[in-house]
């Protein structure tokens, strides 16, 4: 097996994996990953993707890197974008392309509609092996670092007074929808995958939401259907009624996706149960139980998507409900089943720092994971910020404790101000 991986590492697909791992959201090498990439990309495409910059780029940029005419580069890029392997966007009248990370990115995009150009059943089996059986990918995504790719949006109707006014705009999924430039609806990747495996639940399938740049690209190429803001809000209410968790992009501005997740199919919620932690994704609210009002009916236990609540029988035969605060998502689903008002949401003692935008998140995640240099030397936008490069280079050399303290300051102040100007 080791010899086979060594040979693969020298291939175009091996170089593509190296390219993926230059970004904070990487993809640990395994034979399963090679099989996935071979289904999604030709060898020639993998070789070209391996040369792509991390930042968005034009067909002219690609043509220079690939040493080919711009018209040919444009054709290749458009083909990849049509299959949702790339995201294409218009920036100041110029067409640009970007290789999304595997998750949330081209892994999901490949299963967000029924397709005949790829064997989705085999692909679903490979995804299940790589994501649900092998642990490296999900551990890297959800356990490494303090800043996650996604975060849970609290269900707004479940937060009662006096705390309802404490939900900030960027914590409201309704606000994301109402302020989006475009809204798209696609098939849920997780439940579609489970459908091929014969284990999907009966939660709504066509309810995966994309917004802004991501929605524009997916709608353009038929991977999502465009919906009005009012229809998107109706689907959000439908998700609430089906006790689905809203898990969206971990940024305050320009949120590109909100998934509506169930505890049985969703890979993110599955990772919470597997690794017994929510520190990178929970909302700024947490469940509170009024023991005097609780009748131990167990409805909240049944509804919790990550098993943060469990029913326990005492030695005297009575029952109690145990609560694991470390697992609580702060989603609000549990409160919907309580008819006695015993289960409510209250603000967490400390708010989680949410990155300003995708640039801010990428820099923070790279800092935490020790690969910030890949962003600095790949992205020429940052070359003018010599101070940033010098400061962050010093931070990476600090002892762990001091580095951790410095990173907290960077996340909340310095990097945010830099990213506002990019």
TrEMBL record:
Domain of life per record: Bacteria
InterPro entries tied to this protein: 4Fe4S_Fe-S-bd, 4Fe4S_Fe_S_CS
UniProt-listed PROSITE patterns: 4FE4S_FER_1 (PS00198), 4FE4S_FER_2 (PS51379)
Domain 4Fe-4S ferredoxin-type: 285-314, 319-348
Pfam families recorded: Fer4_7
Transmembrane region(s): none
One example GO MF annotation: iron-sulfur cluster binding
Keywords: Iron, Iron-sulfur, Metal-binding
Gene3D superfamilies referenced in this protein's UniProt entry, alphabetically: 3.30.70.20
Protein name per the record: 4Fe-4S dicluster domain-containing protein
């Amino acid at each position: 097996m080791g010899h086979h991986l060594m040979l693969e590492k020298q291939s175009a697909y091996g170089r593509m994996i190296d390219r993926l791992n230059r970004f904070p959201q990487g993809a640990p090498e395994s034979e399963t990953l090679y099989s996935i990439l071979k289904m999604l990309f030709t060898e020639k495409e993998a070789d070209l993707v391996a040369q792509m910059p991390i930042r968005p780029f034009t067909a002219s940029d690609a043509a220079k890197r690939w040493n080919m005419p711009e018209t040919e580069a444009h054709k290749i890029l458009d083909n990849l974008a049509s299959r949702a392997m790339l995201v294409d966007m218009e920036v100041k009248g110029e067409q640009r392309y970007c290789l999304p990370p595997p998750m949330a990115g081209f892994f999901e995009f490949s299963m967000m509609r029924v397709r005949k150009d790829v064997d989705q059943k085999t692909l679903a089996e490979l995804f299940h092996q790589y994501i649900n059986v092998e642990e490296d990918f999900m551990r890297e995504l959800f356990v490494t670092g303090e800043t996650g790719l996604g975060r849970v949006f609290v269900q707004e109707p479940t937060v009662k007074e006096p705390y309802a006014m404490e939900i900030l705009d960027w914590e409201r999924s309704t606000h994301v929808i109402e302020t989006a430039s475009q809204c798209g609806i696609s098939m849920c990747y997780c439940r579609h995958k489970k459908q091929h495996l014969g284990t999907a639940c009966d939660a709504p399938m066509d309810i995966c939401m994309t917004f802004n740049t991501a929605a524009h690209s997916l709608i353009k190429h038929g991977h999502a259907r465009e919906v009005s803001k009012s229809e998107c809000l109706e689907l959000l209410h439908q998700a609430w009624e089906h006790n689905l968790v809203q898990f969206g992009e971990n940024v305050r501005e320009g949120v590109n996706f909100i998934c509506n997740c169930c505890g049985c199919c969703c890979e993110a919620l599955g990772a919470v149960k597997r690794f017994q932690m929510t520190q990178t994704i929970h909302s700024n609210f947490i469940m509170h139980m009024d023991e005097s009002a609780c009748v131990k009916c167990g409805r909240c236990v049944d509804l919790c998507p990550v098993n943060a609540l469990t029913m326990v029988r005492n030695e005297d035969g009575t029952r109690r409900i145990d609560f694991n605060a470390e697992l609580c998502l702060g989603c609000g689903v549990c409160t919907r089943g309580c008819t006695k008002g015993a289960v409510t949401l209250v603000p967490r003692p400390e708010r989680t720092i949410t990155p300003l935008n995708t640039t801010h998140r990428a820099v923070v995640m790279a800092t935490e994971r020790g690969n910030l240099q890949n962003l600095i030397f790949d992205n020429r936008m940052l070359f003018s910020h010599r101070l940033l490069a010098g400061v962050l280079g010093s931070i990476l050399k600090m002892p762990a404790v001091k580095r951790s303290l410095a990173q907290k300051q960077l996340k909340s102040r310095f990097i945010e101000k830099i990213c506002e100007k990019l």
